[in-house]
Amino acid sequence: MNNPQQHLSALRDIRSMMEKSSRFVSLSGWSGVAAGICALLGAYLSHGYVYGYKNLFIHEMSASRYDSGISLLEVLMNTWLFWIAAGTFAAAFISSFIFTFIKSKKDGTPLWGKMTKRLLINFSIPLFAGGLFIYKLLHFGTFGLVAPGCLLFYGLALLNASKYTLAEIKYLGYGQLVLGVINLGFEGAGLYFWALGFGVLHIIYGIVMWYKYERDVKNSEA
Known about the structure:
Keywords: Membrane, Transmembrane, Transmembrane helix
Largest sheet: none
Transmembrane segments: 24-45, 80-99, 119-135, 141-159, 192-211
Radius of gyration: 21 Å
Distance between the termini: 24 Å
Helix content: over 70%
Structural class: mainly alpha
Order of helices and strands: HHHHHHHHH
Strand content: under 5%
């Protein structure tokens, strides 16, 4: 192996193997694009309900029922926003999973393993804490802090998980944190910041990741 190109190729192979053994590297750029499109569609469908152009409740609820001890979860499930949010999350999760599954099959790397477990655990802990925090915000009627809360805790989840997957995901986390902090000063514009963070930033991140990793793979195979 006297050719410098052979040495360089061997070093690249060793680096690739080390990365695959220490990080989950099958995240597809198309997953980010798909999640971003789902978020933008969800924001579009939510606009009229958030800003009062449409009736938020699926079934009208009398004041006596509010006073009868009905739980916050029951109230939330009687709103269109809850089901739009649930549908948006489900669509984003399923589409992201499909693209990541396709990439893992193409790369020949297992989708489920030790690194995947660590990634999910480190990603889920800040999200779980954030979910509880936002639930209490809704309980006390502090709706203006829901969107910045979502962005801040999601950004923290991405940063916490970044050491177990592609390092670039931390920049997506920083972007969510910056938007969340700015949104604290513009509470009435929460849906727009939510769309920027979960929609536009995901699409930009997905395109960059596809260009940097998946496009290079295609060219090398050609």
